[in-house]
Amino acid sequence: MAIFWEQLERYQPVVVKMLTKSLEKGRISHAYLFEGQRGTGKKAMSLLLAKSLFCLHRSGIKPCNECRNCRRIDSGNHPDVHVIEPDGQSIKKEQIEMLQQEFAKMAVESDRKLYIIEHADKMTTNAANSLLKFLEEPRPGTVAILLTEQYHRLLETIISRCQVFSFKPIPPALLANYLAEQQIPPHIALLAAHVTNSHEEALELGRDDWFAQARKIVLQLYEMLKKNDLQALFFIHDQWIPHFQEKQQIDLGLDLLLYIYKDMLHIQLGQQDKIIYRDKIDDLQQWALSCSQRQIVKSMEMILQAKARLNTTNMSVQLLMEQLILDLKEGKVFV
User: Fold this and answer.
1) Fold of the domain spanning 208-330
2) Distances from the Cα of 56 to the Cαs of 69, 115, 203, in angstroms?
3) Mean pLDDT of 157-169
4) CA-closest candidate to residue 148, choices 14, 33, 13, 40
5) Is 284 helix (H, G, I), strand (E, B) or coil?
6) Between the CA atoms of 103, 104, 107 and 108, what dihedral angle is there, to the nearest 10 degrees?
7) pLDDT at 148
8) Are the beta carbons of 109 and 124 closer than 8 angstroms?
9) Cα separation of 42 and 60, whole Å?
10) Distances from the Cα of 282 to the Cα of 123, 205, 275, 278, angstroms
11) pLDDT tens digits, residue range 198-245?
12) Angstrom distances, CA of residue 139 to CA of 94, 112, 130, 163, 246
C-alpha cells in the first residue's frame, strides 16, 4: 500500500516538516538515521524519501506514487535503491561489502543511489566498521538511511556521521481514529491502538476474531474475580488457557487485564479521557468505587510481576495464572 506525505504528516509532523524543507532547498544529507519505536513510520518514511528523490512526476517535493520508479521502489525492484536486512540474527560484514561493491558502480538510471539498512543496530562489529568507512567517504549522489529501534546500540562514530531524526510514538487516539476509518469497531480500535504502536499490527488485531474474543474473556475474568476464587480458577481452566496458548498471547492477555485496573485508576483520578474500555464505563465506575488507589496499584504490580515471570522462566501457564488469581484475591481489591 502506497504511503503519502499527508499520512505521515499526521503521525510524525516534526520529521516530515524537516525533510520537506531539505527537499525544497535541495539539501539532501548523505546519511540519515531514523530512530524510534517499531511501527512509528521509519520504513515508510525512508521509502517515501526514496520515491521523492527518484519520482518521474513529482509534484513539488511529493512523489506521485504511480510512476514506474515509485512502483518499483514500493515493490523493491528499483536498481538504484537497495534495502539491507539482517541475515538471520545480524547484518554481516559481507552484506555491507556487497553493498559497497554495488555502489562503486555507476547508477543505472540516474546520478543518484540510495540504500536503506533496516535494524542497523544488529550489525556485527565488523559490519559496523565497514559501514563507518563507507559513511566517512561517501560517493557523490549516494544517500544512506539507517533505521533502528535500538539507537543506543549503534557506534557513536556512525551516529555522528548521520542526520538523526527521532520518530515519536503515535498517540493511541490518532491510531484508533485510523482504525475506525478502516471500519474497525471503536471499542476494538481503541484497545488495539494501546496494544501496539504499529499501523499494520493494530489493523491486523482489529480484524482478528481472536483478539475480540480475548477482550471478552479478560472482562469476564475480572467479573469472576469479583465473585469468588473457585469460580475464577475454573474460568482460567475452561476459558483462559484454551484461548491464550502461546507465550505472546498470554502476555497480551495480561496486558488487557492490566488495562482494566488502569481504567479504574483513571476514573479515580478524574482522567476519563484516558479510559480504554469506554464501552464499559458504567461497570468501571462501579468497580472503581470498591477499592482504593493503593489496592489498584498493588494489583497492577501483581500483573506486571506475572508478566515478568512469564518472560523469564518456563513456569507453567496454569500455575502462573492460578497464582495471579490468588494474589489478586488476597490483595482484597474486591469488596
Assistant:
1) Zinc Finger, Delta Prime; domain 3 (1.20.272)
2) 7, 19, 32
3) 94
4) 33
5) helix
6) -100
7) 97
8) no
9) 22
10) 51, 25, 12, 9
11) 888 999 999 999 999 999 999 999 988 887 668 888 999 999 999 999
12) 20, 10, 15, 17, 48
Q: What local confidence, expressed as pLDDT, does residue 333 receive?
A: 43
165-194 average pLDDT score: 93
Judged by average pLDDT, the poorest of 10-19, 46-55, 226-235 is 226-235
- H or E element: which one contains 113? strand 113-117
HEC-encoded secondary structure of 58-86: CECCECCCCCHHHHHHHHCCCCCEEEECC
* Contact status, residue 264 vs residue 291, Cβ threshold 8 Å: yes
- Average pLDDT value over all residues in the chain: 90
Instruction: Examine the pLDDT at 1 and tell me if it is beyond 60.
Output: no
Look up residue 237 and give its DSSP letter.
Answer: I
Task: For residue range 323-335, list pLDDT tens digits in order.
Answer: 999 888 875 444 3
**Helix segments in the chain, DSSP class H:** 5-11, 13-25, 42-54, 68-75, 93-103, 125-136, 156-159, 172-181, 186-195, 199-206, 209-227, 229-235, 241-243, 247-268, 281-289, 293-312, 317-330
Domain covering 5-169: architecture: 3-Layer(aba) Sandwich (3.40)
Q: Which of 299, 238, 291 is nearest to 267 (CA)?
A: 291
Measured CA distances, 13 to 2, 10, 69, 278 (Å) = 18, 6, 26, 28
pLDDT digits (tens, 9 = 90+) for 124-158: 999 999 999 889 887 888 899 999 999 999 999 99
d(CA 218, CA 224): 10
Q: Which of 299, 224, 289 is nearest to 260 (CA)?
A: 299
| Domain ranges for the chain | 5-169, 208-330
- Residue in the structure block whose three cell numbers are 561489502: 97
